[in-house]
Design brief:
The chain is α/β, with parallel strands linked by helices. It is 40% helix and 17% strand. The chain contains 14 helices and 13 strands. The strands form three sheets. The protein has a five-stranded mixed sheet, with helices on both faces. It has a four-stranded parallel sheet with strand order 6-5-7-8. A four-stranded parallel sheet has the order 10-9-11-12, covered by helices on one side. β11, α12 and β12 form a beta-alpha-beta unit. α2 runs parallel beside α3 and α11 packs parallel to α12. It binds iron/sulfur cluster (SF4).
């Protein structure tokens, strides 16, 4: 009898999250799969995440419900140009955000997540390394600004977080009385991050909400994908939690790729094991890609 595990990212719709054995951010899901060995993993998320699950769990079948669920950080990165860039800075250490394709990961020395990137880059500078950072330009710009790094940056963005807008935030804040907070994911643009009370990973933002001890009448704006607001509101129904506005003023920012994981497709994948199977990674590419991932996993913060 096959053991089946369904994993869902926080950015999927609540109805899909309810179908999952575990809900989390990308690394959390890959590590959960490792701990809870399964023959078949139905992965409600996007393709680069499913690839990471496969790299960490090569003996499991990994099925993504929809072939088209990619990510702008992947589609904005031309791999041949990335290789040229890497070559141009061949004496640098290449740190790549986990939100990248497998072909991207194998060009890197270290993989990082938004949870551990600061400590890993600080460590690299402390031992005299020069660093290039890819693919998220916004996150790299924030790290350079906040910690005084001088990393060379690749130029791609998360099309969702990049839409949050500082002007619209100012406008909204001037209209709302009382106490207000802004918490943001570091994939957001720097002007938004500069206004934030807290900047953290998806997991970090959720923890911030869970542990919030301020005035319960405060309005808390969140600059990240709308899916996580469901988890935030279920953990703290007493708080007024709203999504931050985008450039048009609309508080309506969602990831189209994550939303391709419909209830219908996830249920079908669970029942018939159909969808887009991550069965195209050779043993060699898995061996190469696991090296920078293991460097990160073995790094003690
Ligand atoms: S939210 Fe952004 S980084 Fe995440 S999958 Fe969607 S486009 Fe990619």
């Amino acid at each position: 009898m096959n053991k089946i595990l369904t994993l869902a990212h926080y950015y999927t719709i609540p109805e899909v999250q309810k179908l999952a054995d575990h809900v989390g951010d990308s690394l959390d899901l890959a590590l959960y799969a490792k701990e809870n060995k399964a023959d078949i993993i139905i992965f409600a998320g996007v393709r680069f995440m499913a690839e990471t699950v496969k790299i960490i769990n090569p003996s499991s079948r990994v099925i993504l419900p929809d072939y088209n669920s990619t990510c702008s950080l992947v589609t904005m990165t031309d791999i041949d140009k990335l290789k040229e860039w890497r070559q141009k800075y061949s004496e640098y250490t290449h740190v790549a955000y986990i939100n990248s394709s497998v072909e991207h990961k194998v060009t890197s020395d270290w993989i990082v997540t938004s949870r551990n990137v600061v400590e890993i880059v600080k460590y690299l500078y402390s031992i005299g390394k020069k660093v290039i950072y890819s693919p998220d330009r916004n996150m790299g710009a924030y790290l350079n600004y906040e910690y005084g790094f001088d990393m060379k940056l690749w130029d791609a963005v998360c099309e969702v977080h990049d839409k949050f807008n500082a002007y619209q935030l100012d406008k909204l804040f001037s209209e709302i009385g009382g106490s207000k907070y802004l918490i943001s994911h570091p994939e957001s643009p720097l002007p938004v991050l500069k206004k934030s009370n807290f900047i953290g990973s998806t997991h970090g933002l959720l923890n911030w909400i869970v542990n919030f001890k301020g005035d319960e009448k405060s309005v808390i704006f969140v600059a990240t994908e709308e899916g996580i607001l469901y988890n935030m509101k279920s953990k703290r129904p007493d708080l007024d939690i709203r999504q931050a506005p985008i450039y048009s003023g609309c508080k309506c920012n969602s990831c189209p790729y994550m939303k391709m994981n419909t209830v219908e497709l996830v249920k079908r994948a669970q029942k018939e094991y159909v969808g887009f199977e991550i069965d195209y990674l050779s043993d060699d590419i898995i061996k190469q890609a696991i090296i920078p991932i293991e460097r990160m996993l073995n790094f003690k913060i």
